[in-house]
Structures are given as structure tokens and as C-alpha cells.
Design brief:
129 residues; alpha+beta; six-stranded antiparallel sheet; 3 helices; globular; disordered N terminus
């Protein structure tokens, strides 16, 4: 009987793990979701301002090889950490004053580093989220 309860507990709690991660992000003051190894959020700033803030944040964090490809609707910023880990920031204009941001660190995602980058971007924008 104990084995049955363990089995049920595992299959009930595992699907809820993603919700717990999203709730942690909201509790920390930032509103974001962690989905499939990627931090996803919206920022109350136009896409060009988010591009500038993202590049400044990556420079402050001393990432190298920063490359930017953007237009007024979408953008992609790539860089490398000191150990060679690739960082990709994808941006999408939701409207004239709101931008969706997605941050992936490495192939499978690094939540802690993604959060640090996100906080640095927020700081560059003056705390607008």
C-alpha cells in the first residue's frame, strides 16, 4: 500500500513542479514563467529600449561576443559567458509600449543565470516590469 501512495504522490507532484517555479518568480517581485528551460516575461517598455537595456545588461555582466539582430517587431541578442555557454535573448513587440522577452542560457536552460540577466535588464529599464 505504501508503494501505491508513493507512486501516486510522484505522479501528482511532478506535473505541479512547473507551477511552483512560476510562483517563485512571482513571489520574488518579478513576474515571469520558467517553461522548458526558458525564462519568459513581458516588460513595460518599447522593443528598442529593451534591446538597449539587454545589451547594457550583458555588457555589465561581462558577457562576450554580443550580437544583435532586431527590427521594430522582433529581436534576437546572443552572447557567450566566460565558460562558452551561449545566452540567447529573444524579444517580440506586443504593442508600442510592451515587449515580450525570453531568455535561454545554454542548451537546456539555467534558471539562476536567466534570472540574474532578467534582473539586470529590469535595472537598466529603471525597474519597469
Amino acid at each position: 500500500m505504501k508503494t501505491f501512495y508513493r507512486f501516486v504522490a510522484i505522479f501528482v507532484l511532478i506535473p505541479l513542479a512547473g507551477c511552483a517555479v512560476a510562483a517563485v518568480g512571482a513571489a520574488a517581485g518579478a513576474t515571469y514563467a520558467w517553461v522548458n528551460g526558458e525564462l519568459k516575461s513581458t516588460l513595460n517598455a518599447p522593443l528598442p529600449e529593451v534591446v538597449t537595456a539587454s545589451k547594457a545588461a550583458l555588457t555589465d555582466l561581462e558577457l562576450v561576443g554580443i550580437e544583435t539582430r532586431t527590427d521594430k517587431l522582433k529581436g534576437k541578442i546572443t552572447a557567450r559567458m566566460a565558460d562558452g555557454t551561449r545566452v540567447v535573448i529573444q524579444l517580440k513587440a506586443i504593442d508600442f509600449k510592451v515587449t515580450e522577452i525570453r531568455i535561454r542560457v545554454g542548451k537546456i536552460g539555467d534558471k539562476a543565470v536567466s534570472e540574474q540577466i532578467y534582473r539586470h535588464i529590469e535595472r537598466q529599464l529603471g525597474g519597469r516590469t
